């Protein structure tokens, strides 16, 4: 355990941000054309805005469980930077699909590159470039374990694409046809595996961890990732815009049928349901406030918090099952307690379930 604590002095997010400045673009394209140079500047601005860097953080947490505590190979940081470039690509394309105007406290890339369809087209192409660059970094990382880890992560990304596809489709479906279980399916496919489970498992793979460790981390991460998305759903309605880096009402205006909203809809009166059904980009502040009151009154908050508790209990069950050695299980538990503050309480792997 003392060796594991030596890793606490490392700040993966800061290291990856430094690497991003150097690795985001190759030298052979810097002088291709002034228009592309401008695009590079805007992409770099987006990638380097203040962010949680969750995937590099969790990749590092997975690596620390099986890696040598006295050093981290340079290839690990190349791989971690590749994950962040890949994530930036996904954000760019998601913002176009969602018609989102704000990302990380600034304008989304398509809004910066041009107006209307032109800006969207340019952003899609810039995103394609980011995807290609991320593949170079992930598969080119000088680690023997990198290709297998990269292939594993891309398999998860295919599920993420399915989750995004379903999420976009839910917005167009009538409220009465969508259930909270549909939202949970999207949460697992789009967020849980990609944001939490895959980075944890890939970090362990990069360090050469045994397969049953990798499998256990993926299972824990899947449950914790669903909890993370459900918490994010609450913040998408009631969160602090300054902390989120985007408006707190964006999910409401984008008509996202998130878990808290769907819980409230199922328990709402006919009149209350009509308020939810009229949500959209043109909703007034009064209408948004009324919807928030309905979500609170009809159990959207308390029901979501109960769901968070249930999936986190499942995560704790995996840790208590002995698939990981006790020191590693305790480290994962403590890490998730920081990752989802107030939800995942650090427990001893041998502790009994909560009363």
Describe this structure in words.
The protein is an all-alpha fold. The chain is 71% helix and 1% strand. The protein has 17 helices and 2 strands. It has a two-stranded antiparallel sheet with strand order 1-2. A hairpin with a 2-residue loop joins strand 1 and strand 2 (106-107). Helix 4 (54-64) packs antiparallel against helix 5 (74-98), helix 8 (146-172) runs antiparallel to helix 9 and helix 13 (259-267) crosses helix 15 (285-297).
Entry keywords:
71% helix; mainly alpha; globular; disordered C terminus; 1% strand; two-stranded antiparallel ribbon
Summarize the model shown.
The protein contains 17 helices and two strands. The longest helix is centred in the middle third of the chain and has 28 residues, at 211-238.
Task: Describe the secondary-structure layout.
Blueprint: H1 2-5, H2 12-23, H3 34-47, H4 54-64, H5 74-98, E1 102-103, E2 106-107, H6 109-113, H7 116-140, H8 146-172, H9 180-206, H10 211-238, H11 241-244, H12 250-253, H13 259-267, H14 270-277, H15 285-297, H16 300-320, H17 326-339
Antiparallel strand pairs: 1-2
Mean pLDDT level: 87
How is the main sheet built?
Answer: 2 strands, antiparallel
- Please give the alpha-carbon distance between the first and last residues: 28 Å
Q: What sequence of helices (H) and strands (E) makes up the elements? A: HHHHHEEHHHHHHHHHHHH
- Class computed from helices, strands and strand pairing: mainly alpha
What's the count of strands?
Answer: 2
The stretches of 5 or more residues where confidence is low (pLDDT under 50) are 342-355
Beta-strand content estimate: under 5%
Rg (CA only): 21 Å
Q: Shape from CA axes?
A: globular
How are the strands ordered across the major sheet? Answer: 1-2
Number of helices: 17
Helix content: over 70%
């Amino acid at each position: 355990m003392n060796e594991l604590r030596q890793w606490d002095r490392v700040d993966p997010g800061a290291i990856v941000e430094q690497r991003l400045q150097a690795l985001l673009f190759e030298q052979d394209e810097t002088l291709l054309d002034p228009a592309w140079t401008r695009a590079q500047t805007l992409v770099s601005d987006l990638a380097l805005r203040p962010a949680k860097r969750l995937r590099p953080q969790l990749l590092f947490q997975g690596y620390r469980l099986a890696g040598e505590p006295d050093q981290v190979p340079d290839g690990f940081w190349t791989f971690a930077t590749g994950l962040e470039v890949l994530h930036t690509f996904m954000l760019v394309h998601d913002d176009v699909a969602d018609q989102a105007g704000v990302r990380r406290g600034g304008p989304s890339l398509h809004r910066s590159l041009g107006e209307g369809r032109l800006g969207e087209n340019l952003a899609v192409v810039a995103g394609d470039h980011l995807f290609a660059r991320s593949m170079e970094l992930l598969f080119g990382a000088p680690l023997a374990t990198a290709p297998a880890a990269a292939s594993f992560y891309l398999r998860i990304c295919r599920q993420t694409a399915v989750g995004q596809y379903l999420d976009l489709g839910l917005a167009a479906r009538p409220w009465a046809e969508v259930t909270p279980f549909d939202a949970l399916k999207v949460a697992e496919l789009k967020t849980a595996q990609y944001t939490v489970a895959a980075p944890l498992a890939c970090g362990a793979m990069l360090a050469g961890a045994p397969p049953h460790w990798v499998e256990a981390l993926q299972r824990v991460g899947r449950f914790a990732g669903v909890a993370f998305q459900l918490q994010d759903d609450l913040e998408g309605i009631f969160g602090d815009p300054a902390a989120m880096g985007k408006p707190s009402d964006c999910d409401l205006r984008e008509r996202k049928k998130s878990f808290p909203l769907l819980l409230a809809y199922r328990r709402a009166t006919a009149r209350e349901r009509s308020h939810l059904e009229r949500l959209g980009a043109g909703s007034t502040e009064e209408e948004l406030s009324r919807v928030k009151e309905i979500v609170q009154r009809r159990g959207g908050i308390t029901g979501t918090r109960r769901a968070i508790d249930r999936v986190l209990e499942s995560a704790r069950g995996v840790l208590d099952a002995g698939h990981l050695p006790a020191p590693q299980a305790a480290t994962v538990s403590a890490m998730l307690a920081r990752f989802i503050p107030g939800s995942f309480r650090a427990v001893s792997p041998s502790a009994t379930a909560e009363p």
